[in-house]
Every structure is written in structure tokens, then in C-alpha cells.
Amino acid sequence: MIEPHAPAPPGAPPHWRRPVRLPVRPDVGRFLVLTCVFVCAACGLVYELELVALASYLMGDSVTQASVVLSVMVFAMGVGSLAAKRLRHHAAAGFGALEIALALVGGCSAPALYAVFAWTGDWGGLWASGPHALLVAFSLAIGLLIGAEVPLLMDLIQRIRRQDAGGAVADLFAADYVGALVGGLAFPFLLLPFLGQLTSSLLTGAVNVVAGSALVLGLFRRDVGRRARRLLLAAAVAVLSLLACAAALVDDFERAARQAVYGGVVRVAVRTGVQEVVLTGGTGGRPLDLYLDGRLRAGGDERRYHEALVRPALSGPHARVLVLGGGDGLAAREVLAHPGVHRVDVVEPDPGLVRLARTDPALARLNGHAYDDPRVRVATADVFHWLRGAPTASYDVVVADLPDPGITASAKLYSQEFYGLARRLLTPGGRLVVHAGPAVGRPRVFWTVEATMRAAGLHTVPYRVDGPEEGFPGGPDRGVSRGPHDWGFVLAGPTARPPLRLDRRGPPSHTLTQAELTADARAVLRTRVTGARVSTLARPRY
Predict the structure, then answer these.
(1) Residues 390-421 pLDDT 10s
(2) Domain ranges (residues) in the chain
(3) Is 486 a catalytic residue?
(4) 328 in a known ligand binding site
(5) pLDDT, tens digit, for every residue of 159-203?
(6) Residue 275 marked in a binding site
(7) Which residue of the set 61, 350, 360, 401 is catalytic?
(8) CATH of the domain spanning 14-252, picked from 1.20.1250.20, 1.10.455.10, 1.10.3900.10, 3.90.78.10
(9) What's the CATH fold of domain 301-527?
(10) Which reaction is recorded as catalysed by this protein (predicted)?
């Protein structure tokens, strides 16, 4: 069907004077263009969320990763919109090429980022290295392509049925924003839980290339030259085939990447809905390593970490003990080793980790089958929310065995409000012990934790112990330390500073001595950072 010729709007490009040839009525064609806008907007937002989610998982600090991705993409979208002016004379062919390129770049972004992370071993460091540079590059490329869509779609929709610019913009952006809403909701509630990050990215790319190619090669095929149609069709088939092959091999790719990341035979890899739990070793005489979201949580030196965390806090009344976090059961193991413990409550947000700690033979053996002890009771809940409903003065000891304070998702568990809730649960002579990150490796974070606890009305005793010589720490600290590593802790009481000593009534320590603990407590004072600010929910300082 050929649309009757109508005058071009003022300032329109010369090709608008040519009639557009459509195989359908103009109103149907307009609906199909807006539908394509809807689908492409949903795909674009999924690419954006994929980058943010994967970067947060691989590199930590979700606020920084989200800020980098969003700011770079928005900037690139503006540049892409300006660059698209040169394509408006060939809007249909240009849009088809853009969507094919966007499907390739966006669909492969998550696998490529994961591959570089796995095989380069870059866990942090300079923004000019490894996954960080690739994250910026993908954000820039995807933003450029998304930004170039809007001028070309505006051109196409106006050529179908010309209207005032304001009305066309309203229609276009309505479809775009609704599509973004659908993509934004589909990612966390459908794609991520059911398909995972890599498959979701590849599937989104496939949807993108099909939608863009169908619009150009179907609706606007008479407006594109024969040679251009063939090239677009060949490119679309090639990209779709590549994405399909990658999706078919994604399980093998993930297994190989895990081997590269964890450096050993991965025996268990489970995505629990809260985090990824990986177990390596534990059979055939190989030591067991437990990783949570890529960070070593329990390794060869875990006993030293957990003894340093638990034993000084239990030097005093300890009939009722609360363990916050510690779903692996290792902190509970150390608590149960002391005589006089009548009850241990473990609050862990990840039921999958607790289930694995109960059922995996190697992990259950490492935690001394703590969850089979009738004195242990487990609550799977958000730690902060659980504390708000707990009765006051109900525990002699609270052990905070939580992820690193430098991880954004954990920042609220190292806030003044959190320590105020924990203090409320302690008996008058009770003790709270907190893992506060490495005192030597990151002194500002460590002393921020200590200052925040004091601001909550707690009387603190900071201390540290030496960790492994190199590699990952066997505790919840973030990142790799190349060189000597330490674990920092803060012991505190609600009414007075508790003494820093090992419980003489407890079993002999495998890794600590009282002299060593006292010397390390003196040494940690030399790392003090003056002027460390208090961290609150509204103003996190980590």
C-alpha cells in the first residue's frame, strides 16, 4: 500500500518527500513500529541491569558499579543520538544494522565480562584493568547503540503517518518507557531466577535481533535495497546462530569458568537465590573450600579465623549465644565446644547455605555436625529485621559473623542502628564481637566499624590476628591479598570494656595463645585512623 503524498514538516530531511511503501495499512504499520520500540526498550534495560548485577557480583560495591554503568550509558546514549543523524537518510537499513549490533554486543556482554574475570584473575584494583575496563567499554557501546535507536525510530514512525513532533515523541516515549518497565521487572523476577545471568543475556540478544530484523525486513523491506536486505538477513542469521550456540554451551562455559576462578575441582555449585555457593575439595584428602559469591568463606585457615572470632567473646557468661550470619555452621561449632552453652540461635538469611551445611558430608564434618546439636536453633531471616523483633537482654554473647563491611549489601549490618539493636539484646555483662575486616589491609574500614560501635553506646576492644601469608583469607573479607593478611575484630560490652582473654574453661585452642592475642591487640592500635566517621543507614561510610 502506498501512502498518499503529504507535505514534509518544516526542516525534514529530503528523503521524507518520498512516499513510504508498506505491505500493511498505515495504522497497522504504526502499531508494529511502536511494538518494536516496546521490545527494544525492554531488551535495552535488561542489558543495563545485567551489567550492573554481574559487575556487583564479580567486583563488589554495587553502588559504584551501578553508578559507573548508568552514568556511562546515559552519556553514551546522548552521543549515539547525535551520531544517528548521519543514518536518517537510510533510517530503515540503519535501524536494522543497529539492532543486530546491539543484540551481538548486549547479548555477549555478560559472558564476556565473566570470562575476562575468570581467566584474568582480576578481582579488583585499578579501573584501567580487566573486568573494570571491559565493563566501561560495554556500557559505552550499548549506550551508543541504544541512543541511536530513538532518532531512527522517530524517522520511521513519521514516515508512516506524519503528525506533529510533540505527538510523535509522546507515542514513541510511551512505548519506550512501558517497555523499560517490563524489562526492568522481568530481569529480577523471571530471567535471573530461572535462567541465570549468562543465559538471560543471550536470550535477550536473540529477542532483540529478531524484533529489529523483523521490523526492517518485513514492514520496511520495500524501502531497503536488495543488497542491503541480503546483508541484513545474513548478519541477523549469523548473530542469532552465534547466540544460540552460546546458549547451548553456556553450562560447559560456566563449569570451565568456575574451574578457572576457584582453581580446583568444583564439587558443588548452587545458586540459592541469595548468593552463589561453591564447594571445592573435601574428598580424596583434598581440603574443603567454601566460596560465597566468589569469596572464600572457609578454607585452610578457617579454624584460626573462627577461634579468633568466637573464643574471646565466650570468656565470661555464655549460656545463651546468638550467631548472626554464620550459616556454614563454623562459628556455631566453636561456640558449642565450650562447656556451659545452653542455647545457640543462628540467624542466617540464606536457607540454601544452611541446608548445604546440614547435608553436605564434607561441610557437615567441618562444622562438627553443629546443626544436629539440639541446642542449636536456626532462623532464616534478614538479620537486621530479625534483630528489631528480638526480646531485650536475651543473650550473653552475640557473634556477628557477617560478610565484609566493604560489600555494599552488608553496609547496613555495620551501621550505628544495627549495633544499637544488637546492644539491646545483650545482658548487662554481655559481649558483642564483630568481624571488622583487615585492620592492616583496610584500616579506615576497620576503625570506622570501631567508631560506629562506640557511637551506639558500646565499649570496644579492637584486636587482630594474622591470617594466611597470601591468597584468599579464610574468612568473609573481600578480594585477594597478595602478601601477609590479617583479620580484624572488635569485642565490645554494653556497660564496660570486656577483658580480651581466652576462656580457660573452654577446650585448648588449636591456633591461638593468650600471649599472641594480647600482643596483637597492642599492635592493632598502631593502625588507628583518627577521625573515622560513624556509619549510619542514611550515611554509609564503607
Answers:
(1) 999 999 999 999 987 766 668 899 999 999 99
(2) 14-252, 256-292, 301-527
(3) no
(4) yes
(5) 887 777 778 889 999 999 999 999 999 999 999 988 989 999 999
(6) yes
(7) 401
(8) 1.20.1250.20
(9) Rossmann fold (3.40.50)
(10) S-adenosyl 3-(methylsulfanyl)propylamine + putrescine = S-methyl-5'-thioadenosine + spermidine + H(+)
